[in-house]
């Protein structure tokens, strides 16, 4: 299992239609598995891009 080293959490909110109906939605962070110094870690795509 890869170790999670990011502090990002899912964003929760409402999805609104044109009729202003509200339904719950969740936006999950874009976590990727990468190997850094021989260790498998789960970091966000933005953080992986910065490390690269």
Describe this structure in words.
This protein has about 50 residues and is mostly beta strands. The protein has one domain (about 5-50). It is about 15% helix and about 50% strand. It is built from one helix and five strands; from the N terminus they run βββββα. The protein has one helix spanning about 45-50, and strands at about 5, 10-15, 20-25, 30-35, 40-45. The longest helix is centred in the last third of the chain and has 7 residues, at about 45-50.
- What kind of assembly state do the chains in view correspond to? single chain
Unreliable runs, pLDDT <50, ≥5 residues? none
Report the total helices: 1
| SSE-based structural type | mainly beta
Q: What's the count of strands?
A: 5
What's the alpha carbon Rg, rounded to whole Å? 16 Å
Helix content: 10-25%
In short:
By secondary structure, the protein is mainly beta. 13% of the residues lie in helices and 50% in strands. It contains one helix and five strands, in the order E-E-E-E-E-H.
Task: Write the topology of this structure.
Elements: E1 3-4, E2 11-16, E3 22-27, E4 31-36, E5 39-44, H1 45-51
